[in-house]
Amino acid sequence: MTNDIARSANPSTIPATSREIRLASRPEGPPTAETYELVEAEVPALRPGQVLVRNTLMSVDPYMRGRMNEGPSYIAPFAVGEPLEGSAAGQVVASADADIPVGAEVVHFAGWRELSVLDRGAATVIDTSSAPASAYLGPLGTTGLTAYLALTRFAPVEAGETVFVSAAAGAVGSVAGQIARLLGAGRVVGSAGGAEKARRLVDDFGFDAAIDHRAGDLPGQLAAAAPGGIDVYLDSVGGDHLEAAIGAMRDHGRIALVGAISGYNSDDQVPGPRNLYEAVKKRITLRGMIVSDHFDAFPEYLEHAVPWLASGQLRTAETVVEGLERAPEALLGVLDGTNVGKMLVRIS
Ligand code: NDP
Description:
The protein is an alpha/beta fold. It folds into two domains: 3-138 and 316-346, Medium-chain alcohol dehydrogenases, catalytic domain (Quinone Oxidoreductase, Chain A, domain 1, Alpha-Beta Complex), CATH 3.90.180.10; 142-292, Rossmann fold (3-Layer(aba) Sandwich). The chain has helices at residues 3-7, 63-67, 142-154, 171-182, 195-203, 218-225, 239-248, 276-281, 298-311, 327-336; strands at residues 17-23, 36-42, 51-59, 88-95, 105-108, 115-118, 124-125, 162-165, 187-192, 209-212, 230-235, 249-257, 285-288, 318-322, 342-346. It is globular and about 65 Å long. The model is unreliable at 1-8 (pLDDT under 50). The site of NADPH dihydro-nicotinamide-adenine-dinucleotide phosphate (NDP) has 29 residues, from helix 3 and helix 4.
């Protein structure tokens, strides 16, 4: 199939070119304007089995900073000169795939561009009658699945236990606090940066107590918020948070190591917890997890999450930055904490 045939599906809506953001150079420290290049690229002809998607929303995620670095990791680094990648949602505007018609709403992994050409299998059709497309990039996507897996498989929550969540006003954290409650936690404590975010943890997301990590004395604040200690910790931050959590942990506690954002923009390794021997004495389990190893758990998660979301038991927030050209700013923002809930970029 040629582009002419594909475009005949909806010719008025398909431009010949599409703006995309490429990695221009690998940053040292926080990404800067030199890190990115905004390019007007030709839209290639569709081959059989491919679809063309006009992206409406894309996700910016902390792990993207790690992919800008060279070197081995759990996912390949972004290539210099190539478009960046990441989760995005959009509408099919031309299709050479019998299974995905023009007009279908889809999510996929070729974000950072206005139009994405996707091979068969790279686009997942979503049902936007039950939840908006943005939900599939957040609570019904890998964000929600990460929170669920952390608290059911990696640091399982038992009824009545005390759970501590870091980066709790963010995408994973805000969902995790509520899932902990839905799993039967007795007390849920969250940490976030600033008094306003701490207030929202309690008022909007139902945490029992909130810590403002920018106010200092993390161990003291955690002891006050969880006087009996904590049983489960979802670690998105590493460094000082992990150390405070180990210090506050009760015997046989569990820690899901999900991220270590305190070091993502740093060229130096952030010092590890100085009290790791406490984990020995307390028989604590620390387990790292990467959500993409567990996509087989999506159906199980969605069985819970779709009704939780529909019934309002799971409340979510989004911070939306307008315009593809502002995606770099949005990524910096998620690393610095300008977001509450899921950080998204509206592309069209
Ligand atoms: P968030 O929406 O939580 O945004 C990141 C948040 O981190 C910011 O809003 C900021 O909130 C907080 N933060 C930044 N620097 C610090 C710091 N030095 N100390 C404490 N908090 C800080 O992002 P996501 O929900 O997408 O991701 C959260 C974490 O989960 C990240 O570490 C990410 O890498 C990880 N993750 C891991 C996955 C996996 O498979 N292992 C999958 C998905 C996410 P504040 O203003 O409150 O400080």
